[in-house]
Specification:
The structure is a homodimer. The first copy, chain A, is of the alpha+beta class. Chain A has a domain at about 70-145: GMP Synthetase, Chain A, domain 3 (2-Layer Sandwich), CATH 3.30.300.20. Helix content of chain A is about 30%, strand content about 35%. Chain A contains 4 helices and 6 strands, in the order βββαβαβααβ. Chain A has helices at about 45-65, 85, 115-125, 130-135, and strands at about 5-10, 20, 25-30, 75-80, 100-110, 140-145. In chain A, the strands form 2 sheets. A 3-stranded antiparallel sheet of chain A has the order 1-2-3, with no helix packed on it. In chain A, helix 1 (about 45-65) crosses helix 3. The longest helix of chain A is centred in the middle third of the chain and has 20 residues, at about 45-65. The radius of gyration of chain A is 18 Å and the shape is globular. Chains A and B meet through strand 1, strand 2, strand 3, helix 1 and strand 4 of A and strand 1, strand 2, strand 3, helix 1 and strand 4 of B.
Chain lengths: ~150, ~150
């Protein structure tokens, strides 16, 4: 299959607000007032967490049938730690980026636990955003919650 | 300074659409119809590119004064390549994530070229999303366009 190239554009607007475009969509990002922004949208780090969660959701839906698992609900809770000493102050030895990403998957399914664990592992392995983040940031799967 | 923890949640909705929440904000992500989605929002890979662009815009604004450069406009164009053989087919040796990210910075400023290059390099080094992506994905700065 041919390689697909995605494109986007980010334009700095008033203060710290940024207009982001891809295809026909526009999404604002900004910072909260505590970070000198005007709080008109998520900040890029929150959105990065959302990308990781959304990508896993989509991969789960795309492959559930092929992996022979019924998925009624799928939800990912995420958190990421940022050390302002790196980002704002540039202190030696402190990274500017996320120190760690943690996430918990919530899934509603009748499948047994082993099957669920295998499926979540598969989802992670095929998730483009997860793969793109591998390297610098430890990504910790805190747990899987199975709702029946 | 204390470490800041950001939180988000991604919930699979109809088809491939995903509702993403962080703080008071909600953003939909989806896939185009060619990828079996319903095209109600950017996909997670497009949004990931936006995160990188927006983060650089915000860092540029935050530090322009301290770096003694006037920034009238700042805009980032980005592209990223995905190989469906990795993501959809899981072919051995083909990564599921982005093969490469490329970006071009457009800046309107009266500063000279050397000052601009130094500033863009500084922005990259302090950008939390850029730092978080380091490792697996080659991130190529294609160029800097200076508008006077």
């Amino acid at each position: 299959m041919a390689i697909v190239t995605f494109r986007s554009e980010s334009i700095l607007r008033e203060g710290l607000s940024v207009e982001n475009r891809a295809g026909k969509f526009t999404v604002l990002m900004d910072e909260p007032e505590t970070l000198r922004g005007t709080d008109t949208g998520m900040n890029p780090v929150e959105m990065l967490l959302c990308c990781l969660g959304a990508c896993q959701c989509i991969v789960a839906r795309l492959f559930a049938r092929a992996r022979k698992i019924q998925v009624q609900d799928f939800r990912v809770e995420l958190e990421g730690d940022l050390d302002p000493d790196g980002f704002l102050r540039g202190r030696d030895g402190v990274r500017a980026g996320l120190q760690e990403i943690r996430y918990t998957v919530h899934i509603r399914t009748d499948a047994d636990e082993e099957k669920v664990r295998e499926f979540i592992e598969f989802v992670k392995s095929r998730c483009p955003v997860n793969d793109s983040l591998l390297g610098h940031v430890p990504i910790v799967q805190k747990g899987i919650v199975i709702d029946k």
